[in-house]
Amino acid sequence: MIRNVLTIAGSDPSGGAGIQADLKTFSALGVYGMAALTALTAQNTQGVSAIHLVPPEFVAQQIKAVFADIRVDAVKIGMIANADIAEAVADALSPLRGVPVVLDPVMIAKGGAPLLAREAIDTMVRCLLPIATVLTPNLPEAAALLNQPIAENRSGMAEQAARLLSLGPSYVLVKGGHLLGPDSPDVLATAEASSWFEAQRVVTANTHGTGCTLSSAIAAELAKGASPRQAIGAAKRYLSSAVAAADTLSVGSGHGPVQHFHALW
Predict the structure, then answer these.
(1) How many Cβ atoms from other residues are within 10 Å of residue 72's Cβ?
(2) Which one from 209, 213, 236, 256 is the annotated catalytic residue?
C-alpha cells in the first residue's frame, strides 16, 4: 500500500524548500504527498523578499478537507509563521489518534530572513510540541524554543535536546549542522537515553531546504512503518546523498537546493 503524507508548511517558489521540497522528498521516497499551505513567500536562492500569510481559518479548512476524505499516515509541520496559525493547526490536528507528526520548527530562512514571529514561539511550545512524535530543530531553533544561548558543543546539544523532550515531544532530534568542524552530528533524545547520528560534512553552498527535506523524509519513513529511530537513520542517509549530489544542479546564484531525485535522475 502506498502511504499518504500531509505537509503543513509555506511555499517556496524557487522549489528548494517549503512544500516544494516536502513534496519532492515524499515522491522520491515512495509516498503520496499532500500539502496545506500556511504562507506564500517570494524567495529565491539568495533570500526571502516577501511573505504573504494564509488566514488561520483557511489553513484549518485545508487540513480538515484532507482528513474528511483521505487516510493520512503521517503529518509533517514546517513553517507556521505566527501564533494564530499555530493554534489553528493544533486545533485541526486534535482529532488525530496514532498518526505520527514530525515538527520542524522553521524560524529563519537559509538567507537569514525571519519566518516565525517572535511572539509565536511560546504558542508553538504550548500547542505543537506536545503533539509532535519527532521534533527536529537546528541549533538556533533549539535555543529559541528554550530561550537559551545557542549550543556550541555536543554536551550543550544533548542538554538542550533533553530539555526540549520535557516539553512534550516523544523524540527530539537536535541537528548539529551549525557546529564548526568536518562533521555534522545530530543528537536524538528519547525517554530512555540519548544517541548520536554521525555524518561527514559535505562542502557545498547548495544546502537550501535541508531542514525541510530531512523532516519530510522522517515523516515519509514513519508513514511506511519505520520506528522513529529507523526513520531518522534512513532520512539522514537520504539527505546526505541529496546534499552530496546538490552540485549536479544549476539553480540560482545563492544557496541552491539539494538534489532530491539523486537516485532517480
Answers:
(1) 17
(2) 209
